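ok here's FBD domain-containing protein, seq below lol
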Amino acid sequence: MVEQFSWECKYAYMATGIGELWQLTRLSLKTGEGAVTNDVDGTCLSLHISAYNTSRATEAEHTFEQEIQNLPVGDLCTLELHLSLGQTGHAWRSIVLHILGIQSIRIATQRLKLVLRRSEVEGACTADCPCHEPMQIPSLVNLQEVEIKGFRGDGYEFEFLQMVSGAAPLLEKTTTIRSAGN
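and the structure came out like this:
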């Protein structure tokens, strides 16, 4: 039986699209001792996601859902999302909720760690921006901990935390870290 496992895949530009504005750039899956931060054992799925400069999801070779359904995420403990926000910085909630809406991830995730990397220039919000879409969060039945690095304290960020708190009956700890330059 395999006790420790580490796997990483890097994606070419435009290879895997997520929704209309995002692309998967790197995916790693680690299990066993040291796989998760804070000396907690378990399985960690780490996704590095970047915003497209324009809406290009129709050009992507694969969808994110196609990639995820091939992963053994049943024992998932931690979901790490590293988001390079580009000019769509304020619209990150839609991609996080999209990923949490995938049943295998939603049911298994106990810890959610968001790392927000913002662009120095953030684009203006347009009428068709994903931030205007109604946000529905799935029931996060096993989520116990949330950490957000790069938190600015904007109203939509607090709204996201309120949504997660209401959807996660086992939530015990929420940590927000304000990063320099964000």
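fwiw Residues 5-177 form one domain. kinda neat tbh
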